[in-house]
Design goal:
Layout: E1 2-3, H1 5-11, H2 16-23, H3 27-34, H4 42-51, H5 56-59, E2 60-61
Antiparallel strand pairs: 1-2
Helix pairs in contact: 2-3
Length: 67
């Protein structure tokens, strides 16, 4: 799965560490998400989207191979 977390994070001048603290995960988790190496739980995805004033559809890019 691809994400636009890095792009949205830059809009708010947030570091990976800043976002991680806001959503309650480690900085490494945000890094893995941005690189597409980790699929978040629905709860975490929602918290990230809310923190970045975004929606799940805007932030996470799904394709048929992800299912």
């Amino acid at each position: 799965m691809q994400t636009r977390i890095k792009e949205f994070r830059a809009r708010y001048d947030l570091t990976q560490e800043d976002l991680a603290k806001k959503v309650g995960v480690r900085r490494e988790t945000i890094g893995f998400l941005e690189k597409g190496k980790y699929n978040p739980s629905l709860k975490l995805a929602y918290r990230i989207a809310k923190c970045l004033n975004s929606t799940l559809d805007e932030l996470f890019i799904f394709d048929d191979t992800d299912l």
